[in-house]
Amino acid sequence: MKGLTFQRNGVVSVEDVPEPTILRPDDAIVRVSMAGICGSDLHVLHAGEAFGFAPGARLGHEFLGTVEAVGSDVVSAAVGDRVLVSVSVNCGECSWCREGLQASCERMSMFGWAPRLWQHGGDVQGGQSEYARVPLANSTLTRIPEAVADPGREGSLLPLIDVMSTAMHGLTAGRMQPGFHVVVIGDGAVGQSAVHCARALGAEAVICLGHHADRLEMAERLGASGVGEQRDPEEIREFVFGATGGQGAHVVVDTVSNTSSMQGAHAAVRPGGTIACLGMDHFMGKLPEINWYDQFVRNITISGGLVHSNRYVGPLLELLANDDIDPAPMLTNVLSLDDAAEGYRMMAERDPGVVKVALAVGATGG
Ligand SMILES: [Zn+2]
Ligand SMILES: [Zn+2]
Predict the structure, then answer these.
(1) CATH number assigned to the domain comprising residue 274
(2) From the CA of 242, how far away is ligand 2's center (Å)?
(3) Structural domain of residue 235, as residue ranges?
(4) Residues with CB under 5 A from ligand 2 (ion)
(5) pLDDT at residue 115 in the model
(6) Is residue 234 assigned to a domain?
């Protein structure tokens, strides 16, 4: 079968790779129909060797498809079911999973990530492939409900797995409530998702700060009440407080989380507000400087973190079924799996108009 593989820093390619098989009784094999390229995959593209990626390792942690085979212990999904696969493998049974902290699951593995995170008796390869092995399938798979199962809606479903869940995680960590003012820093797919989710959760003002006119227009279509391209913290403060009746943001979702974006976040947030950090520069060893003085004096909560798989997908599926959300517009480009390397290039070089690239992997089954 075909799969998108890491070759060396800066180079990924689609290659013939071994088809996965059931290794444990709670495994499932999923025939992938659509997979996403995530911003965090670009970190692997640029610096996979530092993370322990060997040539041939398969990438991708956002994918959906049809169950092709199940082990004898799998009860929550059957062959032929259409399913969303969580970004990370999780058991659903340990104390962390039971508290909704699946990112800290004792048996957690990341799909399409470095082998040091694999602990399920063999490969946990990425889903930018024709087939993928899904360990702990009883909790790692989510069946797609009938109401949204139309194969034509895969573009609405795919973003739920990661970027929309991550956005919900940021808003949840930000203690989001209806009527709140929300500022989203960053106009990439997670930023677009945070705008869209904040609107669905009943935010009053939803302000997106970014640096690309076309993406800011998309944010307006997805629910932003205001957008801005300010970089200077003073200008951000003036803009945000002016647009919120002098209140400032109850929640800032910072999808960048570097020193500069954090300065903007502090400028936008109101006293007692929360800054939820979702950016991943620290994966590349770049730690943001945080204004601990402002944090202390104005009682700012700094929050955020790695998304908990499964916790948000159910509520998001409900919002989708009720037509309260439709994240499909943020999938700006759908390529075939054969063109996956080009998709990485388009995202890495930020081609105009490109927000998120999805890969159509095979005929949608069922
Ligand atoms: Zn991701
Ligand atoms: Zn667990």
Answers:
(1) 3.40.50.720
(2) 45
(3) 166-304
(4) 91, 94, 97, 105
(5) 65
(6) yes
The CATH number of residue 139's host domain is 3.90.180.10
**Segment holding 243, helix H or strand E:** helix 233-243
**Ligand with an atom nearest the CA of residue 159:** 1
Q: How far apart are CA 215 and CA 238, in angstroms?
A: 22
CA of 309 to the centre of ligand 1 (A): 11
pLDDT at 51: 85
| The pLDDT value given to residue 364 | 40
pLDDT at 286: 85
Low-confidence stretches of the chain (pLDDT beneath 70): 115-122, 363-366
Amino acid 366: pLDDT = 35
CA 180 to ligand 2 centroid distance, Å:
33
Compute, in angstroms, the gap from residue 140 CA to the centroid of ligand 2. Answer: 10
Give the DSSP letter of residue 129. B
* Total domains present in the chain: 2
Q: Is the residue at 132 inside a domain?
A: yes
For the CA of 139, the nearest ligand: 2
Alpha helices, DSSP H, located in 64-164: 95-98, 137-140, 154-159
Q: What separation in Å is there between the alpha carbon of 153 and the centre of ligand 2?
A: 30
State whether 197 and 242 are in the same domain. Answer: yes
- How far does residue 137's CA lie from ligand 2's centre (Å)? 12
Are 281 and 246 in the same domain? yes
How far is residue 198's CA from residue 254's CA, in Å, rounded to a whole number? 13
Residue 264 lies in a domain: yes
Confidence (pLDDT) at 110: 86
Cα 108 to ligand 2 centre (Å):
7
Contacts of 110 (CB under 8 A, 6+ apart): 61, 87, 88, 89, 117, 124
User: With a threshold of 0.85, does the pTM exceed it?
Assistant: yes
247 and 292 inside one domain: yes
